[in-house]
Design a protein that fits this description.
By secondary structure, the chain is α/β, with parallel strands linked by helices. The chain is built from 11 helices and 14 strands. α1 crosses α6 (128-137) and α10 (302-318) runs parallel beside α11 (335-345). The chain binds threonylcarbamoyladenylate and magnesium ion. Magnesium ion (MG) binds next to loops.
């Protein structure tokens, strides 16, 4: 098994766990399901294997990878120390969609994994296939999301095939993923503070129930302007998920103001020849009769929006949509991660509806 993607001219092998683990041990790349999104895995100690991951994705080499482990004991082999705050978070949320940025132990991981930083991002996924694959491979598994760089993260094996067929050693198909958005990336201070570097599957409210001093990296707010600090998570600065059509997010003082503005804007765009669609919550579906609607599920369970968002963005491209409006959701709980990804996909284009009169 060659470790370069050029060694995989066309095959997209659906692998059994045991074969997949053998490929990882041999320095090849394998896509596998986690509870968040599909990852593209490689032995995190093997520089050629890690380079093959960057090559297959077309990922900038200054964007470090998350290392996936299957047992708590593996963590101590990778990092210098785990402070009390981090330990409390691990106890509460592993296995699960929480990634911890910790001081890296020198000389164990390929330097390409950390992109030259003195920290490493580690998580233990809550998915039986991922856990068994990592355990059987017997190595820490570096795995970014298994999409081409700039595409929405894959939530099905089919999405991985669309992006990476012919570029990787194979895939373990575990069906659709559960959370649908990536893990929450945090840094935990010795003083009990927790900084969210990337919102994700574990909410700020869940973190605060364990460690009350939770803040969000000020570099995260994408609309923050030229004077904003650089984000501490390097990947956050890249444009991601952008559909080919022009996507804007619509927010406003009431649902009626939002749906009214969306109806008017879609009519105007449609009249000028745009192929239009709306990303809407089910509570408002009846307001868009005659429009192409992609459902984000119910506002009452934002888990559905998380599960569906990336698939819907891919569908917009498949369906040749050129003009897309998306309803905003309240940025609380999982809504923080949904809005973060939606705003990134929209290049932070937001239209604010005025209150409707009469
Ligand atoms: O749910 C997930 O986290 C998925 C699944 C496959 O586990 N993985 C994932 O990986 O989303 P990726 O590579 O697409 O995103 C990793 C994020 C990037 O924003 C990266 O910059 C950040 O984690 N990151 C990695 N190492 C870091 C470090 N040492 N310090 C700060 N941020 C780091
Ligand atoms: Mg990614």
């Amino acid at each position: 098994g060659g470790s370069s993607y050029t060694g995989h001219p066309s095959q997209f092998a659906a692998l059994a766990l045991r074969e997949a683990a053998a490929l990882l041990r041999a320095g090849d790349t394998v896509a596998f399901p986690t509870e968040t999104v599909y990852g593209l895995g490689a032995d995190a100690r093997n520089t050629a294997a890690v380079e093959a991951v960057f090559a297959a994705k077309g990922r900038p080499s200054d964007n470090p990878l998350i290392v996936h482990i299957a047992r708590r004991g593996q963590l101590d082999e990778l990092v210098q120390q785990v402070n009390g705050t981090a330990e409390a978070l691990i106890k509460a949320f592993w296995p699960g969609p929480l990634t911890l940025v910790l001081p890296v132990k020198p000389g164990v991981l390929s330097p390409r994994v950390t992109a030259g930083l003195d920290t490493v991002a580690v998580r233990m996924p809550d998915h039986p296939v991922a856990l068994r694959l990592i355990a059987e491979a017997g190595c820490p598994v570096a795995a970014p999301s298994a999409n081409r760089s700039g595409r929405p993260s894959p939530t099905t094996a089919e999405h991985v095939r669309e992006d990476l067929q012919g570029r990787i050693g194979g895939i373990v198909d575990g069906g659709p993923t559960g959370v649908g958005l990536e893990s929450t990336v945090v840094q935990a201070g010795d003083d009990g503070t927790v900084t969210i570097l990337r919102p994700g599957g574990i909410t700020a409210e869940q973190l605060a129930a364990v460690c009350p001093a939770v803040t969000t990296d000020p570099g995260l707010a994408g609309a923050a302007g030229p004077d904003a600090p650089a984000p501490r998570s390097p990947g956050v600065k890249y444009t991601h998920y952008a559909p080919k059509g022009r996507l804007s997010v619509v927010e406003g003082p009431s649902p009626a103001a939002v749906t009214g503005l969306i109806r008017r804007e879609l009519a105007v765009a449609g009249a000028s020849g745009e192929r239009t669609a709306v990303l809407a919550f089910d509570e408002h579906a009846a307001d868009y009769i005659g429009q192409r609607v992609y459902s984000l599920g119910s506002l009452a369970t934002l888990q559905e929006a998380g599960q569906r968002l990336y698939g819907v963005l891919r569908r917009c491209d498949e369906d040749g949509i050129t003009f897309i409006l998306a309803e905003a959701c309240p940025p609380h709980g999982l809504g923080a991660a949904v809005m973060n990804r939606l705003l990134k996909a929209a290049g932070h284009r937001v239209i604010r509806a005025e209150e409707t009169r009469g």
